[in-house]
Amino acid sequence: MAELLGHGGLPVHLAGGRRRTAERLASTVPGAIAAPLETVALEAQLVILATSLDVSRREIAPRIHEHLAGKVVVDLSNPAPADLSGSAHDSAAEMLAEHFPKSSIVKALNCVSARRLRMLAHGGPAPTVPIAGDDLAAKRCVTYVLLRLGLDVADAGPLHNSRWIEGLAELLRRLGSEEGLGDAVGFRLLRLDQVDRTHAGRAAIVPADRYTFGKEQGQ
C-alpha cells in the first residue's frame, strides 16, 4: 500500500513496530518518512491501519485514539471467527469504531491483496474496492485517494455493511487457497445494465467507475 501511495504522488508517513519495518519500507518508497506512531497520528489527516484487528484494538488505539479525533481511519483488517465471538457487532470495522470513538471509520482495501496492490503500482489491472462508513465526507475522502491511485471504488453503504465486505474477502481468500487461484485473485464490479449493443449486436461491458449500492437515505 505504501508503494502505491508513493507512486501516486501522495505524502506517506509510516509507523512500525519493534522490528523497524517502517524505516526499511520508507527507504524504498519515494518521499516516504518513517516516524513514531504518535507523530504520524498527529500529522496525518487520513490514517490507514494495515494491522490485525487485535493489534489495532489492544496496541494502537490506546496510544493514539485521542490524536485521531476528527480524522479518517481506514480499516483494512479481516477478522478471524474468534475475533467476533461474544461481540455485539458482526464486523471488525464496527468493533474498531468503538476504540476510535472520535474518528470516522471507513472499511476499505481489505479485499485487495498486497500482491494485487504491487501489480497495480506497476501498471496492472485495477480491482474494485468496496467501502463502507457512516460519515459521507470521510467516504468521499477515501474515494478520492483510491481513485487517484487508479483503483475502482464501490460504495457499500453504512459501516454495518462492512460484514459483507469482510465476507467477500473471505470468499476471495478461499478461492485463492482452496481453488488454487493464489493471492493475485481480485474483485471487479460491472454494471450489466450499461451494455452497449449499438455495434452490430456486439456487447461491451462498461466497468463500474461510479457504481454505488446500499445507498444511504438522503445521499
UniProtKB/TrEMBL annotation:
Coiled coil: none annotated. InterPro entries: NAD(P)-bd_dom_sf, STEAP_metalloreductase. SUPFAM superfamilies: NAD(P)-binding Rossmann-fold domains. GO terms for cellular component: plasma membrane. This is Pyrroline-5-carboxylate reductase catalytic N-terminal domain-containing protein. It comes from the Bacteria. GO terms for molecular function: cupric reductase (NADH) activity; ferric-chelate reductase (NADPH) activity. GO terms for biological process: copper ion import. It comes from Nonomuraea muscovyensis.
